[in-house]
């Protein structure tokens, strides 16, 4: 695929073209530590909210939840399409190794806007938990731990434009497009087959396994001078993805196997 073919297949929209990634990266370098403030406020809100709701009736919030989930589903689908097309371009023109080590996701046409939108979106996504608290649903460790660590790591990594970002962002957009679509249907009262939920959790486990693999490859190729990253970043990403892999695997077992064996196979 030559450059002309690429432009024909992946048109850059005006708002993507006008986006100045240099300003975005500079802002993140100066302000990334504010992610700790967001996480602190988030933790205080959800755990304080649980205490507040303990003696109160749960709220329905079905319509706001539909709109919330639908908005995040559409955002994730569009993000997956835009970053996915660019990932395919890199894979097709430069190969897998370059797709891992590539930094152009932060500055290339199309992907530069969606890279920044991705990291910023991790702050409003914290709102997912507010619905759980106000509707008095069970809040598991995996949920809030995942929200906090993704926000911290995304902002921490974007400021340095480290290798692997293309894979991390594209996989997350893709999985979230499935997940939030599922949440939208459930909130709307649509009965979704149980196997669809299993597919989503399986895709999350695959995402974490791939993330761990990419982190390992970055470390290996960084030694050869090919992958621009930092040892501390690789360490944090590896620990993060390993913890996710273990937690999501445990969730899969507890949700779809242990419960089924104890109660018999039942649909949701």
TrEMBL record:
InterPro entries under this entry?
ELO_CS, ELO_fam, ELOVL6
Q: Which domain of life is it from?
A: Eukaryota
Q: How does it sit in the membrane?
A: Multi-pass membrane protein
Q: Which GO terms describe its cellular component?
A: endoplasmic reticulum membrane
The pathway to which it is assigned is: Lipid metabolism; fatty acid biosynthesis
Q: Which UniProt keywords are given for this protein, alphabetically ordered?
A: Endoplasmic reticulum, Fatty acid biosynthesis, Fatty acid metabolism, Glycoprotein, Lipid biosynthesis, Lipid metabolism, Membrane, Transferase, Transmembrane, Transmembrane helix
GO process annotations (BP) = fatty acid elongation, monounsaturated fatty acid; fatty acid elongation, polyunsaturated fatty acid; fatty acid elongation, saturated fatty acid; long-chain fatty-acyl-CoA biosynthetic process; sphingolipid biosynthetic process; unsaturated fatty acid biosynthetic process; very long-chain fatty acid biosynthetic process
Q: Which GO terms describe its molecular function?
A: fatty acid elongase activity
What catalytic activity does the UniProt entry give for this protein? tetradecanoyl-CoA + malonyl-CoA + H(+) = 3-oxohexadecanoyl-CoA + CO2 + CoA; dodecanoyl-CoA + malonyl-CoA + H(+) = 3-oxotetradecanoyl-CoA + CO2 + CoA; hexadecanoyl-CoA + malonyl-CoA + H(+) = 3-oxooctadecanoyl-CoA + CO2 + CoA; a very-long-chain acyl-CoA + malonyl-CoA + H(+) = a very-long-chain 3-oxoacyl-CoA + CO2 + CoA
* Locations listed in the record: Endoplasmic reticulum membrane; Membrane
What post-translational modification does the entry describe?
N-Glycosylated.
User: Its Enzyme Commission number?
Assistant: 2.3.1.199
The regions listed as transmembrane in this protein's record are 65-88, 164-185, 197-222, 234-253
Question: What's this protein's family per the entry?
Answer: Belongs to the ELO family. ELOVL6 subfamily.
What's its job? Catalyzes the first and rate-limiting reaction of the four reactions that constitute the long-chain fatty acids elongation cycle. This endoplasmic reticulum-bound enzymatic process allows the addition of 2 carbons to the chain of long- and very long-chain fatty acids (VLCFAs) per cycle. Condensing enzyme that elongates fatty acids with 12, 14 and 16 carbons with higher activity toward C16:0 acyl-CoAs. Catalyzes the synthesis of unsaturated C16 long chain fatty acids and, to a lesser extent, C18:0 and those with low desaturation degree.
Q: What is this protein called?
A: Elongation of very long chain fatty acids protein 6
Q: Which gene encodes it?
A: ELOVL6
């Amino acid at each position: 695929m030559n450059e002309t073919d690429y432009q024909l297949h992946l048109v850059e929209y005006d708002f993507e073209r006008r986006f100045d990634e240099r300003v975005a990266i500079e802002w993140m370098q100066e302000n990334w530590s504010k992610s700790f403030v967001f996480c602190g406020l988030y933790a205080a809100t959800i755990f304080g909210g649980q205490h507040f709701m303990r003696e109160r009736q749960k709220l329905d919030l079905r319509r706001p939840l539909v709109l919330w989930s639908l908005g995040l589903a559409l955002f994730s689908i569009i993000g997956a399409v835009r970053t996915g097309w660019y990932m395919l371009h890199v894979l097709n023109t430069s190969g897998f190794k370059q797709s891992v080590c590539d930094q152009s996701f932060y500055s290339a046409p199309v992907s530069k806007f969606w890279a920044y939108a991705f990291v910023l979106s991790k702050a409003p996504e914290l709102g997912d938990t507010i619905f759980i608290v106000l509707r008095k649903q069970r809040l598991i460790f995996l949920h809030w731990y995942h929200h906090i660590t993704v926000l911290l790591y995304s902002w921490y990594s974007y400021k340095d434009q480290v290798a692997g970002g293309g894979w991390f962002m594209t996989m997350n957009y893709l999985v979230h497009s499935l997940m939030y679509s599922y949440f939208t249907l459930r909130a709307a009262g649509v009965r979704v087959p149980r196997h669809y939920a299993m597919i989503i959790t399986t895709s999350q486990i695959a995402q974490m396994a791939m993330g761990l693999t990419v982190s390992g490859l970055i470390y290996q190729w960084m030694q050869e001078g090919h992958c621009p990253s930092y040892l501390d970043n690789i360490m944090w990403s590896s620990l993060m993805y390993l913890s996710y892999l273990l937690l999501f695997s445990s969730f899969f077992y507890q949700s779809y196997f242990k419960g089924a064996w104890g109660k018999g196979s039942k649909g949701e």
